[in-house]
Structures are given as C-alpha cells and as structure tokens.
Design a protein that fits this description.
Chain B: It catalyses: L-glutamyl-tRNA(Gln) + L-glutamine + ATP + H2O = L-glutaminyl-tRNA(Gln) + L-glutamate + ADP + phosphate + H(+). The structure holds two protein chains of two kinds. Chain A is an alpha+beta fold. In chain A, 37% of the residues lie in helices and 12% in strands. In chain A, α1 (3-13) crosses α2 and α10 (306-321) packs across α19. Chain B is an alpha+beta fold. Chain B is built from 20 helices and 20 strands. The longest helix of chain B has 22 residues, at 442-463. Chain B is elongated and about 95 Å long. Classes of the chains: A alpha+beta, B alpha+beta. Chains A and B meet through α11 of A and α1 of B.
C-alpha cells in the first residue's frame, strides 16, 4: 500500500465521518486548483453523502473519454458537448464498486488525438505558469497533471499510441499501459479500437499495482476484453518462464494460479498432465530471478536529447548493478512502426467518429445551416464542431481506407504491424501466450528498456511552432508497444544526479514486457527499487563505487 | 432486457420527441423520432404510403392506355438482338429474437425507439456483442441455398452517411462472408417461360449484416427515425449475374423467399418489407462484340447499372424490364451506358430514374471491424442443421406430386398459398383420413386437394374471407370428405354441409348432417317405381315419343328423368337408378 492509500485506509477504520471529510478535503483541493486539467467535477455536497464503502478510500479523476452518468463526457470536443451516458463505463463502475469516487473528468486532446493535450475544445492543459509552461504530454494530459499536481494520488487515462506513458514521462509520474484487452474498454469512447487501452497514472508504483488489480477483470460487455479462459492461458504460459523447450518438472503439481477475472487469488488444481505440460515446479516459479534486459539498437536515434540518453545509460547501469543482465537486441521494424501507427489509428478513427452527426447526442445540428439538397448530409455540422487535428486525422483515415489507397496504406500498415509484433516475439524469452505453436526462446529477454520519449517535456510555446507532423514524432518510442498490444510502464527517473532535479528535466523510462506479462512487469519494477528517485541515487553510487 | 428508461432518458437529452400527428398514422410503426433535416432523402422511401398507393394506381391507368398502341410488338421484335443479364442482391430479415450485435429484442413493436440498447443508436463507448442465436436462421438459409459454410468468417464496416445508419457504417461481411457457392434452381413451376427450361442460378455469397433504422418523412424539413429496426440481423444473398429475363429475375426472388420461409429463416416477405432486392442490369448484343465488363467472374458483359431497394416481385420484373429497354434505347441510338445507381418507385412504374452516377458513387471504405472477433462455425453444427433442415419447396413439390398424387398445378398452389399454412392443413386432413396402417396417401390426396383448394377456395373467394386453419377444423373437413367418399353424402349435400361448416358450425359433422337431413338414404325400388309411374302419368306426350323410339326419344327420356329428380327427394336419389327404373318401365 502506498502512503496515499494507507492514509485513506487508516481513516476508514476510524469511522464514516472521517471518510467523508477526507473526500471533501480532496474535493476542496480540486476546486481550489481550478486547473485546466479538469473539465467537470462533482458538487461538493455529493462528496459528503457517504458514497465511500470500499476497503480503502480515495477519489479519482477520470479522463473525459470514459462515459459517466452524473458527469458529462465530451472527449474534449464541442461535438459531444452536454453528452451524458445512460450506462457508466466498466472502469467507472469497477472503481465505484470498490469505493473510489470519480470526482472529476479531466482534460485531454480531443478524442485522444494529440501528444500535448493542447487540442482540446475547452482549453489547453499546461504544466507550469505562463511562458514557462511546459507540455503535460498527451492525450491524457489532464489526468497526468491531476496526479502530478497532487490533486489526486491516482488517475485514469487511455493509451492508444502512448497517451498515458508520454504524459507520465513529461510530468514525472508513473504511467502504466497494460496489455491490450486486460481492462475493459466498455464505455471508453474509442479513438482506434484495436490500439485503445485503459491506462493508470500514480505517484507510486504500489498505487499503480493496486489500481491495476481492481480493473484487471474480464468484462462480457467488451468483446475484445480477455476472456477468463485466455487469462488462464496467459497465467499458465507465464509459469514456463525460464524453462528450456522440452524441460519438464514431472511432479504432480499443485500450482497457485491467479485466476483471471477475479480479484481474489484462487487455487487451481491442475491435473498431472497439465502440470507436466506446463512443466515446472512451484518452487521454481516463485524463485526470484535476475532478469535479462533488452536494449534495442533502433531506439538510439540521433535526435535523442542528451539528457534522455544520459538517463537511459544511467538507468541501464543501475539495473545491471542490481544483478540484471543487459543485452543488445534488434527490433528492425521500429522505424516503420510510427508510420504504420499514423495510418492505422486515423483509419479506425475516421470510422469511429462517423457517428457524430448531431442527430442523437452531443451538440445539436444547427437548423440555420442545412447542407445542400442532395449534398453531403452532415459535413457542415462536423466541420463546425470537430477540432482541426480531429478533422486532419479523419481526412487522413478516410483517404487511407478509400478504394484507391487501401492497398498502399491500410493493408501495408497492417503488414508492418504484423512485423512489429514478430520483432517483439522474436526477442522475448516468453512465447506469445495466445499464439499457438510458439516456443519459448531461452536466450530471449524478459523486458525491454527504452526511453518513453526522445526528449524531456518541451515548452508549449515550442510545441506550437511545430507542424503536426513534428509532434507525431513524439510517439516514436511508445507506438511499437501499442501496435503489438504489449504492457508498458513509464517510470520517472533522474537524468542527472549532479544537479537538483526540476520539472523541465523530467524523463521517463519505458519498460516493455511480453503480451500478458503485466504482473511480472510490475513485480520487476518493484524488485528494482533503484528506479525510484532516491533509491536510484543510492544504487548509482553503489554501482560507481564498485567500478572504482 | 429492454431498457425503456434508457430510451426515455435518451429522448430528453437527445432531442427526440413524440409526435402526436405521427402516432395517429397506422402505416408506420413510428411515433417517437429524431428531428432531422432531410436533405439527401430518397423520396420513394419516405413518401407517405397512402400517397404512394394513389400515385401507383394513377400511373398504372396511364400505362394501360399507352400499352395498347402497339409499341409492345416492336419491342419484342428487337429483343431478339439483345441479351439481358441480371444479378440480384436480396436482403432478408432473419427470424431471430435478438438483434445481430445487441441483446435488444428483434420482435416487432409499435412503440418507436423502445427496443434499444445503446449500441443500436451508436452511443459512444458502446460495443457490438455478437448474438450467437442469430446463426440458427442464418445457417438454415445458407444451407437451404446450397452454400458451403466457411469455418471462419469476419465482419467489416461499410461506411456511408445516412440518417438511418446511426454509426455512420453498417456492419457486414464483405471480405470473408460466412457462406459461399450456393445455388437456386428455377423451373417453369417457379414462373419461368417454357423456353427458358430449367435454370441453375449461382449464389456468390451469403453474408450477415445489420439492418438500418426506419425513416418516415414528417414534413419538408423533418424526418422521423425509429431505431427499433436498427441493428436487426439480415442476410444478404448475392447471386451471380446469370438471369436473362425479367420473369426469371422475379421468379428467382420469389423462389429465394419461399426457400427462406420453408426453412423458417425469415418471417416476413416482400409484402411486409422483410425482404428487399437490388438488381444489377446490363445488356449486350447477341451478335456484336462482347462487352468488356466482368462481374463476379462472369466476363464479356455490358456496362451495368444498379437499381436499388425493390420491394415487390412485380417491381423486380418491371424495373428490370424498364431498365433493359432504357439501355437498349440508348445503345441503339449510339449512346453509352453510364455505370450508375438508379431508383424505381411505384409512382412511376414505366422507367427507372437516376439516383447517382459513378462520380457520385459512394466509396464504402470497407474496413475490418476491430471490435468484433472472427466468427468460427463448427462443422458439427453445420452437419446438425443440414440433417434437421425442413424440406425446401422443390422437395415439397416432389412429395406432393409423388406421394399425394396432386397435379403440379395443385401442388404449386398449395405451396404458395397462405405462407404454407394451407399445406399444413392439407397434410393434417389427409393424415386424419389415412388409416395409420396405410402409408399410401394417394388414395385421399387428390380428393382432399379438390376440397381444400377448389371447393374451399371458391368459398373464400366469393365471401372475400382470409384463409385461416381454424375456419373449419381439420377433423370436420376430414369427416366431411370421409362421408362423401363412403357415399353417404351426395356432391350437392357435401357442398351444402361445407357451407354450414364455413359459417362457423362447430358440432361434429355427423350431427350436422343428421340434423340438416343431408345424409344419403337410398330410396327403395318400390319408391322409384311409384315415382316413375307418377311422372309417366303426368307426361303422356313425352312418354309416347319415347316409346316410339323416334329421334327425340333420348331427349325426352332425359326430360322425364329430370322430372323424376325434381319431384323426388334429391338427397335420397341416384340418377342412375332413376334412369334404370324409367327405362325398365318404358322400354322393357
């Protein structure tokens, strides 16, 4: 338990009054901040109605693309202004069931399209004041700022191509994007369905893990949410880590498996055959192991900021000092991944956003401006109420899906996506758990460590001078894991231990795991406390000493 | 679970409103609707039905006048030079309890926007949930159409903006449909001209897809939308371009509908909007150079046009006919056919009209739906449906002709009447008559056919009554026929009894026959002689002629017989015996 959760928990045990007062206190903090990160929030009196009933107590801001019933859901777009859902998103429901109150909806890039949270119909998100304001990252910048500014200890975002990891890196907090399909997308307004994931922000790793445990559940309302069966397959596959192909343990095993779709850990009896098939002993599974860390050559790009390169080097050194093995790897399709992403995501977006026509919800169609007779039906409405970046991506996607361009863009991009997946599968030690006939790779790596972004957070004034193409480059390190659906977490690190740390020197390190290996990924980060700022320093000093 | 509260709430937040004017109209199931400014609205689709019917009647009067002026003859002449080619896409509503991708009820309801889940209105954040029971009628349809069922198929999005399409796209199976390579056989029985022989029309593919919402034009500026139909499960059945006459095109659609009915895959046909057809039409000269277009692998065809949204067999035939003539006119005048989409409306049945040309063609931007998992259909499931499939019309036709001894005409009539309920009734009556030890149904088949098709049919026509199996209970009907066959009812008595039953009499047939004195009790010989003598006495002139055995003898004998029949108790008399008695007295 993190300090934040612990505090709440302690108060709960002291009785209801204190519970509600804590929420009220959080609320006041929220309101006083009057932050642009917040688009809407619940009224103060609602916080004292005793809604909190979970074992631990807290409040949470939700990115404004998660449907809520008492607060509007706009996706930071005029076109959805005033929209309130009839059913809340599964994420909001799970949080509420656990006693966590959704106090606010946070600002974002319109429909998730952007890397700096500047493309919002309702004002930009900023980190810092005035001309010194730096980018909070995007598209979940509002949620990241809510956590970074201490308005809440946890927040929910969504990550399509880096929208949780990038803001986490820019604001100096943890941002976790689980494997695709781990957390239900039901009620998450889609940007690009095949890439969208629910992501978690927190100031501590323990909070990330606690929140992940609440949300990591099968949901029948989302057809792409991992089924209980698939979850079990993944758990069983993870048990094979470290085994050579064909190696078996042979005993009639009783293996503890975290049953998928359940908060409680369940004992699962495996038959002897199954156990043999998995082929390893409980002891072996539980044994803490030093991990093999892959460092892909292709990420060491010329454009990388020296501060980021320095942080990367220091961080890898610290991991090595902690007994992990750091090895070079190659992910050859990395260069094409960004282009593929910017074909696929807009293509899906152009399709998903076709529903916004002003007929059924959102801002009403203007009666004064009907389209031409027999002309396009909704172009005036959509032209008026979508923002520029949204329009740009809709046009891009409409083009790449059109009959003449489909083969050269959409199909090619899908092929690149396959290659990206193949790249990852060929370097990881674990086989992809949901692909048949794939074998573990004994010389593979357990995790890949790369920077989250090539630069520290840019100034907003700088970003505004960039073309939209320039700002797409921000996603170059986060997009590959999205294309492959892999779990990835951005961890705040100190880039330079010789000078005092300041927000403009925020750098995030991204740790990427094999598909479904989310739990081990979080365990790995936890088992290497050097990653957290103070410990990182100590670790480094130890490492330096050992080199002298 | 219906979420009415959801819709009502939705109504208030999304500017749906209830129109009292509309609620009074019976022609549509709508009364709660979206305000929508109609612009690119297809008038044929949304014009009030009453107006449509009026226009259609007026137009058909016009046509009758113009048809009489001999143009027809000329047209027929020049058709000899041209080959018509038609391919048809049929959309049929599946007989299912839920929608394709939501658990909302698919049952018909007259409360607009009541059968809705969020996904049916494309509410942001809602996702498609495939409903496996939809596969039952879909598989039945595909198997009955002789298709190969693919073990793995996928769903795609077909994009276009229209107010009846809430998501901005329709979910369909474009790249990988669940069924391919089917076949439908057409014969004269199905309405082909005799010279066309027997045709085998290939089915390219059968795909699952969503239906659209229902629209009604409220006034100049407003369309009302009922999303109840939005997301219903359809199959689209795509034929190869292998039809070559308007009659064959109509016969094909009729045949597909009857097959879908027979296997319970569809519940409503064209007359209720449960089945709609798009036809692709092209022509080429028999003797000229072959065309350079190819569709579905059929090469050498002329440029085709598509006529959308035909909702009756007749409109399929008429539209193909009109489009064929239009294309020939253009080509003979040295013109060129444009690839375009054309419309057809009841109010102008003489011609198709242009909706949009190639440059205005919608690029549907088909994209695999990223939310929907591939559909895996197990071979065992297919085998199960194959073995339990009800017989299709051709099998039924053979059965009626061979086992029941019906003529092809009568068998065809039974199949096509009243959605098959007349056939069920027929089989019920026959089986009640046939002793369980006897499998031979021919003994009664023809007889029962006569009664149910012709006698009962005539009554239905003259009284303008709609058929219903409960009009006359099958047991009553079989008792009636049984009595007649046993000689206990004469023909006229049996018909009288049928009318009594038809009027709603529910008592057992034997009781009614007794009460109404309809049962045949033969007169004895003595009674016949007495009656004959009385007639002989009353008509001496005629008797004389008969006895002289002159030319007129035969006629006068018939006259005397008539007198006997008239004066006697008809229900107890047999003409043969009366004549015999008369002859024995007069011509011993």
């Amino acid at each position: 338990m993190s300090p934040a959760f612990r505090a709440g928990g302690a108060k709960i045990r002291n009785g209801i009054k204190q519970r509600t007062s804590l929420v009220a206190e959080e609320y006041r903090r929220l309101r006083l901040t009057k932050h642009r990160a917040v688009l809407s929030h619940i009224a103060e009196q609602e916080t004292s109605t005793g809604r909190i009933r979970g074992p631990f107590q807290n409040v949470i801001p939700l990115k404004d693309n998660f449907v809520t019933t008492d607060l509007p859901t706009t996706c930071a777009s005029y076109i959805l202004q005033g929209f309130k859902g009839s059913d809340k998103s599964t994420v909001a429901q799970l949080l509420e069931d656990f006693g966590i109150t959704v106090v606010a909806k946070t600002n974002m890039d319109e429909f998730g399209m952007g890397s700096h949270s500047l493309n919002s119909a309702f004002g930009e998100v900023q980190n810092g004041p005035g001309t010194h304001a730096q980018s909070a990252g995007g598209s979940s910048g509002g949620s990241a700022m809510a956590v970074a500014d201490n308005m809440a200890s946890i927040a929910i975002g969504s990550d399509t191509g880096g929208s949780v990891r990038l803001p986490a890196a820019y604001t100096g907090i943890f941002g976790f994007k689980p494997s695709y399909g781990r957390i239900s997308r039901n009620g998450l307004v889609p940007y690009a369905n095949s890439l969208d994931t629910v992501g978690i922000f927190a100031r501590s790793l323990a909070d990330v893990a606690s929140l992940y445990k609440i949300l990591n559940k099968h949901d029948p309302a989302d057809p792409t949410c991992l089924t209980t069966d698939s979850r079990l397959r993944i758990e069983l596959a993870a048990l094979r880590r470290g085994l050579a192909p064909g190696e078996t343990a042979g005993d009639n095993l009783h293996i503890r498996v975290v049953a998928a779709g359940d908060t409680s850990e369940q004992e699962t009896d495996l038959t002897a055959t199954e156990a043999e098939h998995i082929g390893l002993s409980k002891a072996r599974y539980n044994q803490p192991r030093r991990m093999r860390i892959g460092v892909p050559d292709e990420y060491n790009i010329e454009e990388m900021h020296p501060l980021v390169r320095n942080a990367w080097t220091l961080y890898l050194s610290a991991l090595a000092a902690n007994g992990n093995q750091v090895v070079p790897i190659s992910l050859p399709t990395t260069k094409q991944a960004l282009a593929a992403y910017y074909v696929l995501a807009p293509a899906e977006a152009s399709s998903n956003l076709a529903k916004y026509d002003g007929v059924r919800y959102g801002i009403p169609r203007s009666q004064q401006a009907p389209d031409n007779h027999n002309g396009p039906l909704y172009s005036h409405h959509r032209g008026e109420f979508f923002g520029d970046e949204v329009k740009r991506r809709i046009l891009l996607g409409t083009f790449t899906l059109s009959a003449g361009a489909m083969d050269n863009y959409f199909i090619q991009a899908q092929k690149v996506r396959r290659l990206v997946q193949h790249d990852f599968n060929s370097v990881f030690r674990l086989a992809h758990p949901l692909m048949d006939a794939s074998q573990n790779n004994p010389s593979g790596v357990d995790f890949i460590v790369v920077p989250t972004s090539p630069t520290p957070p840019p100034l907003i004034s700088e970003v505004k001078r960039q073309s939209s193409l320039d700002s797409y480059v921000n996603d170059v390190f986060t997009v590959p894991a999205s294309l492959a659906g892999l779990p990835a977490i951005s961890v705040p690190v100190i880039p330079d231990d010789d000078m005092p740390h300041t927000p403009e020197k925020n750098v995030g390190m991204q740790i990427i795991g094999q598909y479904g290996d989310d739990r081990k990924l979080l365990q790995f980060v936890k088992a290497n406390p050097e990653m957290q700022m103070n410990e990182l320093m100590d670790g480094l000093r130890t490492w330096k000493k050992s080199r002298m | 679970m219906l979420r009415r509260w959801y819709c009502h709430r939705f109504v208030s937040t999304a500017r749906l409103y209830t129109s009292s004017l509309c609620a009074q109209r019976k022609c549509f199931s709508t009364s709660t609707h979206c305000r929508f400014h109609a612009t690119a609205v297809d008038e044929a689709e949304v014009a009030p039905l009453r107006k449509q019917l009026k226009d259609a009647a007026r137009a058909s009067r016009h046509q009758q006048v113009s048809d009489t002026n001999g143009k027809d003859q000329l047209r027929r002449e020049r058709l000899k030079d041209w080959e018509l080619t038609v391919g048809i896409e049929i959309h049929a509503q599946l007989n299912t309890s839920s929608k394709l991708f939501s658990r909302a009820s698919a049952d018909w309801t007259d409360v607009p926007n009541a059968a809705l889940w969020p996904f049916d209105m494309a509410v942001p954040g809602s996702q498609p949930l495939f409903q496996p029971p939809v596969l039952i009628p879909a598989l039945r349809a595909a198997i009955a159409l002789d298709c190969d069922i693919r073990p793995r198929s996928k769903f795609d999005r077909k994009h276009y903006f229209y107010h009846d399409q809430p998501a901005g796209y329709q979910i369909t199976q474009y790249y990988e449909p669940f069924a391919v390579n089917g076949r439908v056989t057409l014969t004269q029985q199905d309405g082909l001209a005799p010279e066309e022989g027997t045709l085998h029309i290939g089915i390219k593919q059968v795909q699952l897809e969503q239906d659209t919402a229902r629209t009604q034009q409220h006034d100049e500026e407003t369309s009302l939308i009922d999303f109840n139909r939005s997301g219903h499960a359809l199959v689209e059945i795509i034929s190869l371009p292998q039809l070559h006459s308007p009659q064959a095109a109509a016969a094909y659609v009729r045949k597909v509908q009857s097959i879908l009915y027979a296997v319970d895959a569809a519940t409503t046909g064209m007359e209720l909007g449960g089945l709609r057809a798009d036809v692709n039409v092209s022509v080429r000269r028999f003797d000229g150079a072959t065309g350079n277009h190819s569709y579905s692998g059929v090469t050498g065809l002329g440029q085709r046009t598509e006529i959308k949204n035909l909702s009756s067999f007749k409109s399929v035939e008429d539209a193909v006919c009109a489009e064929r003539d239009r294309q020939i006119d253009i080509l003979e005048a040295g013109g060129k056919i444009e690839g375009e989409t054309r419309g057809w409306s009841l109010s102008n049945p003489g011609a198709t009209r242009r909706l949009r040309g190639k440059e205005g063609e919608v690029d549907y931007r088909y994209m695999p739906d990223p939310d929907i998992l591939p559909l895996h259909i197990d071979n065992d499931l297919v085998a199960h449906f194959r073995s339990t499939l009800p017989p299709v019309p051709d099998q039924l036709l053979d059965m009626l002709r061979l086992s029941y001894g019906l003529t092809a005409d009568d068998a065809g009539a039974l199949l096509n009447l009243d959605n098959g309920t007349r056939l069920l009734y027929y089989q019920d009556v026959v089986s009640r008559l046939t002793p369980s030890s006897n499998n031979n149904k021919t003994a009664f088949g023809v007889h029962v056919g006569n009664w149910i098709l012709h006698e009962l049919g005539a009554l239905l026509t003259t009284t303008e009554t709609e058929w219903h199996p409960d009009l006359i209970h099958a047991q009553q009907m079989s008792d009636l026929i049984s009595l007649q066959l046993k000689g206990q009812l004469t023909g006229p008595s049996a018909k009288k009894l049928l009318r009594i039953l038809f009027a709603g009499e529910k008592e057992p047939v034997s009781v009614i026959a007794e009460r109404e004195n309809l049962l045949f009790q033969s007169m004895n010989d003595q009674e016949y002689v007495e009656l004959a003598n009385r007639v002989i006495q009353d008509h001496p002139k005629e008797v004389e002629i008969v006895q002289k055995n002159s030319k007129q003898a035969q006629g006068k004998l018939k006259f005397l017989l008539g007198q006997m029949m008239r004066h006697g108790d008809r229900n107890r008399m047999e003409a043969q015996r009366a004549e015999k008695t008369l002859r024995s007295i007069l011509m011993p």
